[in-house]
Amino acid sequence: MANIDLAECVSDKIQSLKAYEVEDSDCAIKLHANENPFSLPDELKPEFQNFIADIKLNRYPDPECGLLKQAISNKNQISAESLVIGNGSDELIQLILQVFCDAGDSFAFPDPTFGMYSIIGKGLGLTPHPFPLDENWDFDGDELLEFLTESNARVVFFSYPNNPTGNCYLASEIKKVIVGYRGIVVLDEAYYDFAQKTFYQDIKNHNNLIVLRSLSKIGLAALRVGYGMADPYIIGQINKIRLPYNSNTVSQEFAARLLQNFSGIESQIKLILQERDRLLEELSKFPSFKVFPSNSNFILFRVNDGSKNLFKHLMENGILVRNLGAHPRLKNCLRVTVGTPKENEIFLSELSKIGQ
What we know:
This protein has 14 helices and 13 strands. By secondary structure, the chain is an alpha/beta fold. The chain folds into 2 domains: 7-41 and 264-353, Aspartate Aminotransferase, domain 1 (Alpha-Beta Complex), CATH 3.90.1150; 56-260, 3-Layer(aba) Sandwich (Aspartate Aminotransferase, domain 2). α4 runs parallel beside α11 (249-260), α5 (88-100) crosses α6 (116-123) and α7 (141-151) runs parallel beside α8. It starts with 5 loop residues before the first helix and ends with a helix.
C-alpha cells in the first residue's frame, strides 16, 4: 500500500493558497451570494421542461456554442467572432491570465474586490498586485497607470460594478487606463444588468479591452454561463486553450432561450432595483450603520460595532448574509443581496428587533 507524504507532492503555489469560501447553511432566506431571488418566469418554465425532455444526453454539446453566441450577438449587436463562452466568467478569468501571462508575471486588480482574481492568478504561479481603492471605493486613473507601469502588470481587472463595494468606478478614470495602458484591461461586468453601465462599445476602438458578462446574477446561477467580448484576435488566442465542450448543452441552449425571451427577466430586474433602493433607504435609517451606495443587486454596509454578532443573530434567525470582516478594509462590514420583497421585509424586521 502506497503511503507517501502528499504535501510534498503539492505545488508550492497551491500550498500557500486558501480556498475561496462559499458560506452556506440551512437558512431559509439566503441573501449572501448575489443571486436572483426569483425563480424562472412562468413563461419560461414549460419551455425548460420540454427542452429537458428532448435533450440528447448521449451526444456532446456544440463545441462552438453557436446558438448561444447568436443569441448574445443579437442582444448586444456584436459579431460572434468577438465572443467566447465560459463555464461561468470564472473560467474566462483563468483563460485570460493563461493567455497573457507566463509563470512569475504580474497582474493587478483593485482592493477590495472579487477574491477569485487573486486566487486564480496565484494558482497559475502569477504575482498579484492589488491597488488600494480610496475612501469612496474609487481610484485616480493617472496614479493607477503609474502603478501598473511600476508593477509590470500584464493584465488589470476591474469588477464593474465592484464586488463587494457595489459601486461603478468613474468612467473617465477607467477610460484613462484603457487608452494609456500597454496591457490587457478586463472589465468584469457580471452585474451589468443592474447597473446598465458598460464599456463593451469601446472594444471596436481599443483592442486591449475584454468585457466579461454573466447570466448567474439574473437567474441562471445553476447553469454557470459566462461570456467574454473582445477583439477577434484575443478570442482566437483564448480558444487555443479553452477546453473542448467547456459549456454543456443544457447551459448553452437554455441560456439562448432565456436571452431570446428576456422580458420576464427584465421585469424581475426592475423589481430587484426597486427593492434595492428601498433597502438602501431603510438601512440608512439605522444610526449604527454606514451604508454604501450601490449600482448592483447587493448592498455593503458597515456596523459601528459587533458585525459578527449581527451576522450570527441573522443566521440563527434563518437569514444568511455575507460577512466580509476578514478583509482589513472591510472590518465590521456585511453585504446583503437584494431578496424578494418578503425576504427583505423579514431581514429589516430582524435588524429592528436587535436595536441596530
